[in-house]
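Entry 12.
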Amino acid sequence: MFQAEIYSAFYILKGGNKINQLLIYIFIAILGLVLGITIGYWIRRYLFRGRKEQAEKSAKEIIELAKKDAEAIKKEKLVEAKDEVYKIRFEEEDKLRNLRNDLRKLESRIAHRESIIDQKSMKLDRRISIIARTEKEINLFKEELEKNLQEQKIRLENIAGFNIYFFFPKKTWFKFTIRC
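Predicted 3D structure (tokens):
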């Protein structure tokens, strides 16, 4: 049936009516246009689908690559930050160690000075006690000398038979007493 229509269309083209011929040409042109648009649409869709899939695949690859790069940069920055923290920590611990050493040295010097002061204090206490003892001994010796002097005066008075008083403040004077 379709074949018969095609034969009739060729028959009309060969010698049929001119209006019919024109209509057939218009119909063929419209049919060609519709077929061309349809085929073009499907080809375009197929090509764009391939391009779209390729673009999506490329975009996914770019995103994956960007994620890997970001992860690598993140790890690198994390390592750098850890290194910086370690470096700062080491420097601060070194400063703290130096401060502790300085503090120990100062404590040692202070302890040494305290021991020297304690030794000097003990020597001073000994000297004070020696001076106090010597002062006591001098006072006892002085008392003994005065006692001996008194005894000698009394003996001398007994021998001479009179009293002699010697006073030596600002003036010197003698008192003589004669016993009979």
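Annotation: The mean pLDDT is 81. The helical segments are 2-15, 18-160.
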